[in-house]
Amino acid sequence: MQLLEKNNFNLSSLKVGFVLPAYNEHENIFELLKQIDLVFNNKVILIIDDSNNNKIKDKIYLKKDLQYFKRTSKLGRGSAVLSGLKTLLKNEEINFFVEMCTDLADDPKELPDNIKYFLENKLDLLVMSRYLKGSKIINWTIKRKLFSFLANKFAKSLLKVPVSDYTNGYRIYSKKAAAQVVKNCGKISYDFIALSETLVELYIDNLRIGEIKTTFTNREKGESTMNLKLILDSFFGLLKLYINRRKEINSVVRKKSSPTNIVE
Predict the structure, then answer these.
(1) What CATH number did the domain enclosing 83 receive?
(2) DSSP reduced 3-state for 211
(3) CA distances from 113 to 7, 9, 20, 87 (A)
(4) Which domain holds residue 92?
(5) What would the pLDDT profile of 182-221 be if each residue is shown by its tens digit?
(6) What's the pTM?
């Protein structure tokens, strides 16, 4: 654990629960597991596999800190994360939870510093944001960058949660946040819109949300699940989420902007 020692921050006494949603990521997920193993000793990894083949299942080697669940159909990324958090919450030894993509877009080597920031600031949710100063997006086309940027701006204009990235699935959750998400989320959609629903749920309940810079690297292997149907579903899902929670969102915004909540 040289990386942790270099940062003068010992993580070995804390157990991390990883939720890894996977869909046809057999070309990437085993490399990700190796990367996580290089950084973390005290962990539990749970893979929720919605793949339409058994290429992960046939190759996976289960061990004490690696659990695997194969679902019979593609139920959505949000559903996979909620299912994974629900399962890991039963393990009382886990101190906090990490959600990651399994296409190698997210770098586990960022986590020690990010966990330190998460704990020192007593956060309930930390979003690794692609749109903070110092962040990088590697190997995306200008068109893809522009679309993602505008989509996040649109989400923020509606939902008001004070973060810059609503759609990145690289996050750290406290136990309290994970339990709240499992209990109350998944009502709008079980796909990517669940990421925005999670933010709204925790924001309305006044949990502490932060964000930190990250480097996002587009996949080199496998195919993205992003398509026109998913984009349209996400757009209408955002509208539905806003309509369903707008009174609560506006109430929180008014409270946070009232003079009694402004620090000089």
Answers:
(1) 3.90.550.10
(2) strand
(3) 7, 8, 20, 26
(4) 2-261
(5) 999 988 766 778 999 999 999 999 999 999 999 999 988 8
(6) 0.91
